[in-house]
């Protein structure tokens, strides 16, 4: 039989009793601990429904007291009511109506996808499948018993189908999405369906999940009445003391892919699903009784299709509930296959011994145990191995319970997992260990670790979690871990980036970033328009030995671009400018090489950023920087630019070195009188309102310097070889004009802010031969050009050059209210520590831009590595007790004061809270009323609702909530009449949009009431 496509388990997350995540789950198993506990008071009063075994008559099981459980113990997960609704754009009122299983599945799915080294947002819009095994829906029993309380929220908050559909909806997954109920085998059946969907190419990724929450004593009572319940609430599989089932709960999600796809993407693989299968008992000796022959046929079929025999199977994770009948039949069925094993025995176990029977999540609990065992190459011990039931004859069937962990051998190892449903639906799976993969990283390759979260508080918690985890990772994985963080952890609004060349530095940097997390600004995400970027290219004087060496060493894309431009320059310079720069040759300070060297590094930087997706909307260049700016704008061919800058530098180098440059703290108009009668001096640059550079003859310059010093004016002599942009440059102008004569005359593709004209090039203006000739002697009108650039509303200005020269100038030129972010591409000094390309990419990302991180890393470093998944905010709580079935008390969500997500605050509910108006401004009655209605419908804390909040993405307004909001608006503002829903939907992007729409609908001159309470707005 041809082996079918193996399916890789690439990611997982889980919560089970005694374990909040997969790491804790593995520790629980390896330590052989008991995860059971007394029924929490939050669930129900266990004593009220408890009847001890001694209280029941011994004569007949049927005579037990009706409506009574024989146990007060079980396996319960911690904080099942905790949720982060804001993270998923769910309104608090909707979250309170949701089955907690849906909430847990949402968070668990997100974390499992991240564990697969994938960004959940990258799966949005893809045909990713969601398959959820679920057996119980006790939340609906509690929520829907009071018919007077039922609203539209409760319909979407309940139902098995919504467990899967919620995940598909909120993560925008377009593949198959379904819930499966086959009782205890539900989640392993869901895995089987996911495997088949992947093989049929109905999806490329699949989330296979299981969930179970115990919210009422109903099933406990049923088990007790049916004689299936263990009095101590513990499952004791294959033990002589086995006396029934102990109930448990849990939630788990696996991320599955076709193995070939996972390997092609170098994705980490936990284990491989070789084959799965399902069948039914048919008519046996009772609908709830297991059928040995059906189990045996299923196992034989799956093993045959997987191409394995009993000799290949190292261990079996059994269904193993701890009922005498169930254990006996399962041992018989399995023993028919294993008893013929050539040598040794098959290890047998059941995770139910650790915390009980998780019912709808039982199959996936056992599957994850097997997956982790193959991943760690160790099988955990069985808790009741010392008390093996001799009647099962396990040794005769070549089966054994492990008293201690079993170390698995190298090479391919196989395991099997069974899960059987109470109604007779059986599931079985055969797994194999993951293929061995070796991914080598560059030695000591640097990287930038990125992390994002929904709030500053969550950012801090996640930074500390990553720091703790990374402190235990091999140092050789630094670049790979950083690259993974860039892919997986970089889409949320509060951000931190830490560049480092080794893991200890990274860990320390993450902890420092955590200390500053509270001050991080929220990345707008385009809510106020698409970010725009300008490149500002530095002029001569910024050059220094080994400039941009860190870029060349640690950014492969930059090295490639610098090599390319060096090749174009070499025929005109006679030497390798790249080598001169990187070797710190002193010649690079002279005009002949300084100008082509500056052009080369600036061109390579700009090309790297553009390739990384940081494309400029505008460019500006200071002096020689205009050549690289012209290339970036498409106004000058790079080959022509290379020839021109080389020729320009060579011509200037031949001029007498009898000139200098002086920076003075005066405006240009104040400088001009100083130049009267001094023909060999001129204004070389106007860099700011009180920052002007004079250039020319050294003697005349000295005289001006002395005069200004007497007037107490701050002056600074610049270290230059010539008096650039002065009358002393005139001898080379005509020759350079001839050099430029054959340069193609073309319009820039981007707006260019000319520092020759002090404004944007307009109309048919080009950077032609006349322009470049004029540029040699004309003053650099940077202040005027930069002012015009900033007036465009550009959001980010990136200085391109080897030193941050223009960045401080730009800060002095900003008009009031201008919030453009300035970033620079290089360190302030040649010996500055750190890794500037990585730092810059991190700064760009923290500023709201999205660079292509791949350009920072060699192919060998672009390997996914698992990182700890997201830590959600758990301040929101909502639960309904099962203490009084049929008479549920009101749901009582609660949020600590100051939490970033909130359920319905009592003040908002009564109309006592009012969103504050801006300082000094009277409250806008319509805006106040609108925000109140939004908060009332969604259940939001008014203190956390702002004009720019998006109603759909941030506040969770779906069609149901929009209809409710429409009704409340019409009730509160009857003068509007009936609002057309289509118009309302079109105007609902943000709270401010809604206010503007309503203002436009009000009759002219209509007064808007400012209600002091919520009366009339319910």
From TrEMBL:
Q: Tell me, what's a Pfam family for it? A: ketoacyl-synt
Q: Which GO terms describe its molecular function?
A: 3-oxoacyl-[acyl-carrier-protein] synthase activity; fatty acid synthase activity; phosphopantetheine binding
> Start and end of every Ketosynthase family 3 (KS3) domain?
4-433
Q: Biological process GO annotation list?
A: antibiotic biosynthetic process; DIM/DIP cell wall layer assembly; fatty acid biosynthetic process
> Could you tell me which PROSITE patterns the record lists for this protein?
CARRIER (PS50075), KS3_1 (PS00606), KS3_2 (PS52004)
Q: Which CDD domains did the record assign?
A: PKS
Protein name as annotated: Acyltransferase domain-containing protein
Which species is this UniProt entry from? Streptomyces cyaneochromogenes
Give the lineage: Bacteria, Bacillati, Actinomycetota, Actinomycetes, Kitasatosporales
